[in-house]
Amino acid sequence: MECAKTTFIVMPVANEEDTIVSTLEEILSLNIERLYIVVVMDSYSKDNTKNRIEKIQQGKPICLLYHEKSTGVVSCYIHGFKYALDNNADYIIEMDAGGSHNPQDIPRFLSLLKQGYDCVFSSRFIEGAGIKGHPLYRILLSKYGTLLANLVLATRLSDMTSGFEAFNADILRQIDLDNMLALSTTHFFQTEIRYYCSKLNITEIPIIYHGTSSSLRVDGVLKCLKLLFELRKRQPIEKETINRSKIADRRRGD
């Protein structure tokens, strides 16, 4: 019988006192074996999110990390990824804590990873998917941004900016997380990750995304466009690289 894999959910949080407890409790209610939740918080969070997490985490597989050197949500993602990798994660799932992502979708991600996929990306634009409560201009930006990204990067995904995704941990070990182009640009992070993984065994699953009203900065969009063409100069991960790394790890362990 195969041993259960260890799964880490990486979840950056900031000012989410109204949703964090229910999100964590719903994840724990799934009763997934060897699952740990890594909640990453920085100084931007000014409400009672931290206190609410601390009240329920005792005796539960919840780790609260305070990222003092955070430069935004992307740095929190990376901080959480590194923690999971340092603690022998087999699978890593990235998701939001504010209600945008449904915890009930987590078993679907894990099922596909167990079938052998390297990465499983959510999509808001395929059959069975949808978006609720999100401004039209943000939906259009995501759709046309995906079209442009696919054109420039030669990728073929239906959604290049959705933030609910799952990885075999060996994949993230091959990405230079400290050298991401998107370290200061939240909206580009998902695109960059998908590009690096585009030559691997990947798939998409439909989700219902629950959005919120949000502002849009023109300079942020222009920066993403510039980074898109810079990203094209980099190389995606090759499957052979992953295989060679696994062989090298086994040899070091012998």
Structure write-up:
With 254 residues, the chain is α/β, with parallel strands linked by helices. It has a single domain (7-253), classed as Spore Coat Polysaccharide Biosynthesis Protein SpsA, Chain A. 41% of the residues lie in helices and 17% in strands. It has helices at 20-28, 49-57, 73-86, 106-114, 136-153, 169-172, 186-196, 218-231, 239-253; strands at 7-13, 35-41, 62-66, 91-94, 119-123, 130-132, 165-168, 202-206, 208-210. It is globular, with a radius of gyration of 18 Å. It starts with 6 loop residues before the first strand and ends with a helix.
Question: Which tags fit this structure?
Answer:
254 residues; alpha/beta; Spore Coat Polysaccharide Biosynthesis Protein SpsA, Chain A; 7-stranded mixed sheet; two-stranded parallel sheet
